[in-house]
From TrEMBL:
GO terms for molecular function: G protein-coupled receptor activity; olfactory receptor activity. The keyword Cell wall biogenesis/degradation does not apply. InterPro entries: GPCR_Rhodpsn, GPCR_Rhodpsn_7TM, Olfact_rcpt, Olfactory_Receptors. Keywords: Cell membrane, Disulfide bond, G-protein coupled receptor, Membrane, Olfaction, Receptor, Sensory transduction, Transducer, Transmembrane, Transmembrane helix. This is Olfactory receptor. Residues 41-287 form the G-protein coupled receptors family 1 profile domain. It holds the Pfam family 7tm_4. The keyword Cell membrane applies. It is found in: Cell membrane. It comes from Muntiacus muntjak (Barking deer). SUPFAM superfamilies: Family A G protein-coupled receptor-like.
């Protein structure tokens, strides 16, 4: 039965971002440039943190992992998007489509948990500064990062397992630029209402749990910051503002896409571009522009 399902639809066709051939050619250069900057920016942050001994601390270890996840998340969809701007028929194999779904949810789910870990790191640093080095030791940091990868993998495989054996017998047109569950599941030749609810519940549990934990963590941190001296508070507030900005930029599009899906096609596509292309680009920029230690490390590297 599984082989029959896959043989019915051996490939899917993307509609892409737009129908205009001229606009697609115009978008090729900016999206290629965005991806290049994303790759260089995130890998630069990773290498800078690895090579600069002043940045060998838990916060920057977690930041390096975040940059690596953003690099991976962007690489799942953007290269295919840019090459498809040159193609009249934008196709992807059944296996390639399933791989995209797996990787998007793997890196996306892992990033959600990683952002919670970063919030926990800031909570310990600001609310329990005397115990920071003992709580956030090397083993603890590695364990937290491994946990984020494991949860991301479990989330992704559970999502994929629910759609892998669906009967796809046509149509095979995905109204987007990459395979994602809300769009692909519509193409199944069966009633998927119950399955959609189950898949949304799976994503909702992970996203809502992480978002609530983040809200609690940063609320507690900000309350604690307000009770401290102005000098210490300003530095802590600057760091937390960067983290909160990243959290909002990442979670808001995800919430609208998976937990409160809009019915307007261009809104769907805009949100998909935002969390797969724009957010991975903004994260390194936000941290480098607002972080004095990163700026100093760049100056040391230049000089």
């Amino acid at each position: 039965m599984e082989e029959a399902n896959q043989s019915m639809v051996s490939e899917f066709i993307f509609r892409g971002l737009c129908d205009s051939r001229e606009l697609q050619k115009f978008l090729l250069l900016p999206f290629s440039a965005l991806y290049l900057v994303t790759v260089l920016g995130n890998l630069f942050v990773v290498l800078l943190i690895i090579t600069d001994s002043h940045l060998h601390s838990p916060m920057y270890f977690l930041l390096a992992n975040l940059s690596f996840v953003d690099f991976c998340l962007s690489s799942v969809t953007t290269p295919k998007l840019t090459t498809d701007f040159l193609n009249d028929k934008k196709t992807i194999s059944f296996g390639g489509c399933m791989s995209q779904i797996l990787c998007v949810h793997f890196f996306g789910g892992g990033e959600m948990v990683l952002l919670v870990t970063m919030a926990y790191d800031r909570y310990v640093a600001i609310c329990k500064p005397l115990h920071y080095s003992s709580i956030m030791n090397r083993q603890k940091c590695i364990g937290l990062v491994l946990t984020s990868w494991i949860i991301g993998f479990v989330h992704a495989t559970s999502q994929l397992a629910m759609i892998l054996d669906l009967p796809f017998c046509g149509p095979r047109i995905v109204d987007s630029f990459f395979c994602d569950i809300p769009l692909v599941i519509k193409l199944a030749c069966m009633d998927t209402h119950t399955l959609r609810l189950l898949i949304n519940a799976d994503s909702a549990v992970l996203a809502t749990t992480c978002f609530v934990l983040l809200l609690i963590s940063y609320t507690y941190i900000l309350v604690t910051v307000c009770l401290h001296s102005k000098d210490g508070a300003s530095k802590a507030l600057s760091t937390c503002t960067s983290h909160i900005t990243v959290v909002v930029l990442f979670f808001v599009p995800c919430i609208f896409t998976y937990l409160w899906p809009p019915s307007i096609t261009w809104v769907d596509k805009f949100l998909a571009v935002f969390y797969t292309v724009i957010t991975p680009l903004l994260n390194p920029a936000i941290y480098t522009l607002r972080n004095k230690e990163i700026k100093n490390a760049i100056k040391r590297l230049i000089h």
